[in-house]
Amino acid sequence: MKAVHTDTQELLFGLDQEESAALSRPAQFAEYVVLFVPAGKGVFHADFSTTAFEGPVLLFATPFQLLRLEADEALPYFQLRFHGDFYCIEHHRAEVACNGSLFNNIYQQPFIPLSQDESLGFFQLITQLEAEFKQQAPSDMVLKAYLQLLLAKSSAIRQKTQERREDIPLPDDQMERFRQLLDQHYLTLHKPADYAELLAISPNHFTKKCNRYFGKSPSRLIQDRLVLEAKKQLHLTRKSIKEIAYALRFDDEFYFSRFFKKNTGVSPQTFRQRTGISIVADLSMQ
Asked: Model-level pTM?
């Protein structure tokens, strides 16, 4: 892994070329992850989501998602990892539009299929990144500029892909309404039956429609929405674990910690320690 580290050797930014065997077993990283697979096909596992893909493709993951790359044959891929302390996607959301699109979106599959021309463009960009890494003293400014360009191009391609793909389910008013209801009530309504009642459909029909439309069960989406908010609070604020547990309507911080570890594999304290507290936390206090 070619990498830039802090004084304590925590990874801030890294780029390497691997084969799928490197992720054949589940792995977790404290950084955001972008995988560029130029060719071949396989299955990408991120926590409880499973995505079949065929290269060229970009795959995305957020800190501490449990990742695995499954393929019948060894697939060469580029793995790029960047820490929030190196490039804060929340702070730069206006420039790259990737927060809530490429990352931190529980409703969309974490991949972008590429055309051959788009794939060539990303290969050239990664080659430029590698060239900067080989410098005796790589420039953080240059690496951040390349990273910003890569994320901005990815966001733009995702938008175009959403517009041109034919296999995306047609808009479903009830499922889009569920998305709105979940964002409004995830703190208080934790059972699929609660949302089925609000949508005036049977729980079984609701579950089938949700699986077909989002590729996830209602239960999984409800859990993911709460975990996503917990991660945001841990990374983007300076609230204590106890304060976050209270804000998320948990009875106590110990129950919150058990819930968080069950869904992420790490405790809230470990997540915050490894991902750090974003500069956004201080900006919001000014």
From this structure: 0.87
pLDDT of 99-137, one tens digit each? 888 999 999 888 999 999 999 999 999 999 989 988 888
- Cα dihedral 99, 103, 109, 112 sign: positive
Q: What is the pLDDT of residue 82?
A: 93
Nearest to 30 by CA among 13, 47, 52: 13
Residue 8: Cβ within 10 Å count? 5
Element (H, E) at 78: strand 76-82
Distance CA 261, CA 271 (A): 9
Tokens coding 122: 């990303």
Q: Where in the chain do CATH 2.60.120.10 domains reside? A: 2-162
At the top level of CATH, the class of 2-162 is mainly beta
Options 2.60.40.290, 3.60.70.12, 3.20.10.10, 1.10.10.60; CATH of 173-284: 1.10.10.60
CA 169 to chain centroid: 22
Return the closest-CA partner of residue 223 out of 272, 264, 181, 184: 264
